[in-house]
Design a protein that fits this description.
alpha/beta; Rossmann fold; DNA polymerase, domain 1; seven-stranded parallel β-sheet; 22 helices; binds adenosine-5'-diphosphate; binds zinc ion
Length: about 500
């Protein structure tokens, strides 16, 4: 099977995104690879596809159990055998995974960096003879990054223990320093480096300065505008998270909160409810995010200035991973600047302090300069986009949308897929998907993406063959769910 056939067979996609094919081919040719690709660019496919094609085990190192589990269940839905080894499994579950490994049944095995560091892991992994390693969120290895994870340092062992297996490193965020760190610490050998543009053309960056009292009003308008869709609200302190959640709940909006002081169970419950679409709005501190790969987040709202453009890019970037239009709203006030300055003033280490000042100026420029926001972000990362001058969508390029203007004038419109969609029919399909997801114990987007639901309503397939023409549905999915999908669509269209 050639690469395009595999892409169609398992994912139901017609073409590769930029650089995907080259990356896949490089891995298959046995090269080390370093990939910097923005969130939503399609990194996972870059190592999943070679794992399927090569017939050798791919070991994926990933920072969070929830993330690994999520990927493994998405793969299962595509008909690819994948497993996770983690500490929450009992002995029997773990044995089952090992059985699969030794029978050569697994294509992908997800491991945490902590598990990799356990000496016995190296032993059995050596026997399992993996074809290559994929390191996800590779920037976590660098102290220069904003998401440093000491456990990631263990990955230095990979090269020594498995000198013959290529290593492929992936990250969405990397300044030059961080990139350099990734290459040296993973000991990559003449890696093929792929850096795709930092421009996320489906995101609309809206920056608005607003007095504290107006923030609440704007937040409510944004949430109303995105009614029925997934939203993340970032607040800078735990107190602010709690106040904002309470304010929203008071107004009848079922928002959930997430911060470091909550106990693990409540955090997990809230995260699951939000991931499953039982509640739309999540209000969190920075603690909420790493490893959140819900593809259909339609709006990310910041209630104060972030500490760096890099941090902003990461957090706002959790919107629109499914490549559909999404809004990133940054509400800031002059008071935020005072707070940032206060924190930097208190720093003792002069190097850290200098770096913090640099980040501070960069953030201030980002919100104050009247230059296309998307372009400013690209340039911050050292990229000079040549193919375009302005994004055409941000507040500088296109002005603020109605729902962010000072006076509430026109009513808000919800997002549009090509043509206008019938809300009640889409609602019926979503209800069916929720039900399926519950039965299969996976998140709804694992069954079908929003975009795929919309395409179903627009194209109205009648036969299994028609279904194959819907983006996001491949033969594997048709075999598995084809009849049920058609049935649900007929019911929705009749409703
Ligand atoms: P990343 O890890 O880079 O943030 P993902 O791997 O989660 O991105 O992919 C983001 C979305 O893009 C997923 O829904 C994925 O299925 C989709 N995608 C990836 N590659 C393609 C492609 N070639 N064509 C269409 N959609 C794709
Ligand atoms: Zn712009």
């Amino acid at each position: 099977m050639d690469l395009h056939d595999t892409l169609r067979e398992y994912w139901g996609y017609d073409s590769f995104r930029p650089k995907q094919q080259e990356i896949v081919q490089s891995i298959l040719d046995g090269h080390d690879v370093a990939v910097v690709m923005p969130t939503g660019g399609g990194k996972s496919l870059c190592y999943q596809l070679p794992a399927i094609v090569s017939g050798r085990l791919c070991v994926v190192i990933s920072p969070l159990i929830a993330l690994m589990q999520d990927q493994a269940s998405q793969l299962a839905q595509l008909g690819v055998s994948a497993a996770v080894l983690n500490s929450s499994q009992d002995a029997e579950e773990r044995k089952e995974v090992f059985r699969k490994i030794y029978r050569n049944e697994l294509k992908l095995l997800y491991l945490s960096p902590e598990r990799l560091a356990v000496p016995s892991t190296t032993e059995w992994l050596t026997q399992a003879n993996p074809g290559f390693f994929a390191v996800d969120e590779a920037h976590c290895i660098s102290e220069w990054g904003h998401e440093f994870r000491p456990e990631y340092r263990q990955l230095q062992l990979l090269r020594d223990h498995f000198p013959d297996a290529p290593i492929a490193a992936f990250t969405a965020s990397a300044t030059r320093k961080v990139r350099h760190d990734i290459l040296t610490q993973l000991k990559l050998r003449q890696p093929r480096t792929f850096i795709t543009s930092f421009a996320r053309r489906n995101l609309r960056y809206y920056v608005r300065e607003s007095a504290k009292k107006d923030k609440e009003k704007l937040l409510l308008r944004a949430i109303r505008h995105h009614k029925g869709e997934s939203i993340i609200v970032y607040a800078s302190t735990i107190k602010m998270v709690e106040e904002t959640t309470a304010m929203l709940n008071d107004r009848g909006i079922p928002a959930l909160c997430y911060h470091g002081k909550m106990d693990t169970d409540s955090r997990r419950t809230n995260q699951e409810q939000w991931m499953n679409g039982e509640a739309d709005v999540m209000v969190g501190t920075l603690a909420f995010g790493l490893g959140i790969n819900k593809p259909d987040v339609r709006c990310v709202i910041h209630l104060s200035l972030p500490k760096s453009p890099e941090q902003y890019y990461q957090e706002a970037g959790r919107a629109g991973r499914d490549s559909q239009p999404a809004d990133c709203l940054l509400l800031w006030s002059r008071g935020d600047i005072g707070i940032l300055v206060h924190f930097i003033d208190q720093m003792e280490d002069q190097n850290n302090k200098d770096a913090a000042w640099q980040r501070y100026h960069a953030v201030k420029n980002l919100v104050e300069n009247e230059t296309c926001r998307m372009r400013q972000i690209c340039e911050y990362f050292g990229e000079t986009p040549k193919a375009w001058d302005k994004c055409g969508d941000c507040d500088v390029c296109a002005g603020l949308p109605d729902w962010l203007q000072k006076d509430d004038s026109k009513p808000a419109r919800s997002i549009i897929y090509k043509a206008e969609l019938d809300d009640s029919k889409l609602g019926a399909l979503k209800a069916w998907r929720r039900d399926m997801a519950r039965r299969h114990r996976v998140a709804p987007y694992v069954i079908l993406h929003d975009r795929t639901l919309a395409e179903l309503l627009l194209r109205r397939p009648v036969t299994m063959e028609d279904l194959l023409l819907i983006p996001g549905i491949g033969p594997q999915k048709v075999r598995k769910y084809g009849e049920e999908i058609l049935e649900a669509l007929f019911t929705a269209l009749e409703s």
